[in-house]
Amino acid sequence: CAVYLGLIGWRAGVAWFTVPAHLNPRTMQRTAEMLELKSAALDLEAISNGKWETVYHDKGQFEIFAVGLRSPDARKYHERLQRMAPNSDRVKGGDLTRDASFRILKDVVIEKCVKDWRGITEKLEDGTFKEIPFDKDILKQLFAHQKWEVVVSGIINAISAIDNTTEEAEAEVAGNLPAS
Length: 180
Description:
Elements: E1 2-8, E2 13-19, H1 44-49, E3 51-57, E4 60-66, H2 72-84, H3 98-113, E5 114-118, E6 121-123, E7 129-131, H4 136-144, H5 149-163, H6 167-175
Antiparallel strand pairs: 1-2, 3-4, 4-5, 6-7
Helix pairs in contact: 2-3
């Protein structure tokens, strides 16, 4: 937003007013592109049924197959955990503390969102790498220890990307895939 000094009202009083950033202050016409509504439609199939999403890290990348936090199962589970949270996890007014909210988010991601992964490896004694198959217990260990916080953040960001996948973006990706 920008602040401008201008004349306001029939008595020509002077006042400060703000003009939203997407409007030209002289003409009050839009300067940014308008939203084409269909381009913003979420891909509910990807959110509910899952998709592969890449998790990036300085040391490499891997992929998770996950559903979004907006998926029906994840939402119901999240709401249930919020309702069941004890008063010790709440501040005055009944809202959850930041720690309790994050703990619930991690639980939802572990139990309802992440379904599979590929590209996570361990180095063997002979110097070769072995892929680690998806295991919910390993996922829980990653989420339980602070030393894996960057990986956990990457997983949560990937799930957020799934939650924000639009139909248009998915169609664009599908259009770039080779015919099988």
